[in-house]
Design brief:
The protein is mainly β and 124 residues long. The chain is built from no helices and eleven strands. Strands 2, 4, 5, 6, 9, 10 and 11 form a seven-stranded mixed β-sheet that branches. The protein has a four-stranded antiparallel β-sheet with strand order 1-3-8-7, with no helix packed on it. It is globular. The termini are far apart.
Length: 124
């Protein structure tokens, strides 16, 4: 089992920045991918960014390319999501996820473990 705890959410004005962190614990040696997803009110959960733990290969949703950056610190078992030039449509609950295999890097069914989520609100 892998436990994931997100932090860093909050409120920001449009154009501002936030950095989310996800601390992993438990059987982290079994993870091959880490990802960030988000879910806005009344919408499904969508993939935002993901990274392969072994070689730092990254994937981004078109809506965040050039604005968000995913990174990892393997020594700390922590994954980050740096969010810049934020927009009101980025408002959502953001979830950290971990996957046991490299598969469907921006899809919910590509991941096996989930954090509780952290709220991000962007005001215009």
């Amino acid at each position: 089992q892998v436990q994931l705890v997100e932090s860093g959410g909050g409120s920001v004005q449009a154009g501002g920045s936030l950095r989310l962190s996800c601390a992993a614990s438990g059987y982290t040696y079994g993870t091959r991918s880490m990802g960030w997803f988000r879910q806005a009110p009344g919408k499904g959960r969508e993939g935002v960014a993901s990274i392969y733990t072994g070689d730092d290969t990254t994937f981004y949703a078109d809506s965040v390319k050039g604005r968000f950056t995913i990174s990892q610190d393997n020594a700390k078992n922590t994954v980050y999501l740096q969010m810049n030039h934020m927009k009101p449509e980025d408002t959502a609950i953001y979830y950290c996820a971990a996957g046991r295999i490299r598969w469907r890097p921006l899809m919910v069914d590509g991941f096996d473990y989930w954090g509780q989520g952290t709220q991000v609100t962007v005001s215009s």
